């Protein structure tokens, strides 16, 4: 390091090149004006240096603090050869034009070292989504809406705004549909089941692929003397074809009889998307074997997190959803979106706080609240959770914006369509990649490693959602038990689900599990310890592995999952894998 020498004093004589003496000017002090100007110059110089330092800091730390541009490819994730190939094959489908890497890097600190693949069970929230919720709660006072004080009015106004936002998100006319808040999809289905006007001539018709919560409605029907029928999609298609070509008279019941048909927009087990034109076919009489009127219940819980639902085009009588499946937070909140004409036929007996405007203790007299939604919302609504909904919609909208959106409380249908079409494309690209990679994986002897359940092999975005259910096959062609696989996956931070995903119809159909085996298994459970392995019965799986993807899933997530299944199980038999896990347990490295 060099050091500068100190300057000579101003009055030091300067040697002359001649011998003639030269007069030296007398030292003059600075005037007050000069000193002032120097001070100003010094301040400006320091300010300029600070400003340049700030710009340098922003250029190196900007993505965490201020996001104004779309991140460049590779800015937040490593561009591997496999990812480069994937991006080339899915140009315009994956990543929201490059935004997904930035979102994953800055908005999911709670993920840490976890890989999440259970979006059909619950969505995931973003950091700024929660920050917006907290800021709202810090800035506003909310109270029980069953009053007229300021905090109550604030809650009541927020709840009404949320109802409107939900209707707008699904493009539903408020003159035609009402939003009834519930604890979730199950709570919404329960309202329909217990208040539907069943009679001894009514039929509860439902597709085999349905969640347990839908199957449970048949108990309400049976209690009122009605019947139930389980039908598969192929049978419905055959019935429609025959009725369209030959005509098929309806039998039983009367024109006044009420029937209920229930089906999922997307199967939560296989990810199969059901044709939404089934709704109109039951409404116009093209489907339905019995005389009377068919009402349609659409379970949209697995569908709406990654697909748009347009209730101006498809008009079921009842739609059930869970908001936490859409955007992670708040949990414990869903909705029954009911057609006003259909809600009017529901008969509710129980009343509570918030559902009636007047009641008498010593006489059987009540006056229901005039608003349809209030009649079915027992007790105090979770108003703080409802206040958080608009920020969940903002989180979804953020996939199409470089800045955090603020219109989740009042979304336009065009914004919703753009957002959900982007999410559909993104998640489809990922599930299709995972399916292609794992379904083509083989052991060294050429035998396949995986068996999938669904329509993934059609590679059709309109028929298949981002849910993959499968079992792994060992080198001899036998099934691996999914219990040990899930235990090891949990140890490695992989969040997957195993079993039947609360959808026995789809599960047992795809696995060809006979009803007798299930009944025998129940007896087996009761007579054996809780630790008994129940994934394989008589060499046959009675469940499977589910990987479900969501709008925040990244290529890196899917790559980790694929690598885990292939590297862990390739060229092994089920017994070899079991022995490995038991050895780890004895050595104190318990995968559980």
TrEMBL record:
Transmembrane region positions?
Answer: 36-57
Its EC number is 2.8.1.9
Q: Name one Pfam family in it.
A: Aminotran_5
Per its UniProt record, what InterPro entries does this chain match? Aminotrans_V_dom (IPR000192), PyrdxlP-dep_Trfase (IPR015424), PyrdxlP-dep_Trfase_major (IPR015421), PyrdxlP-dep_Trfase_small (IPR015422)
Where does the record place Polar residues bias? 1-23
- What keywords were assigned to this record? Membrane, Transferase, Transmembrane, Transmembrane helix
User: Which region ranges are annotated with the description Disordered?
Assistant: 1-28
Q: Name one GO molecular function term.
A: molybdenum cofactor sulfurtransferase activity
Q: Which organism is it from?
A: Blattamonas nauphoetae
- Do the record's keywords include Transmembrane helix? yes
User: Domain named Aminotransferase class V: which ranges?
Assistant: 116-396
Q: What is this protein called?
A: Molybdenum cofactor sulfurase
Primary enzyme class: transferase
- Membrane is among the record's keywords: yes
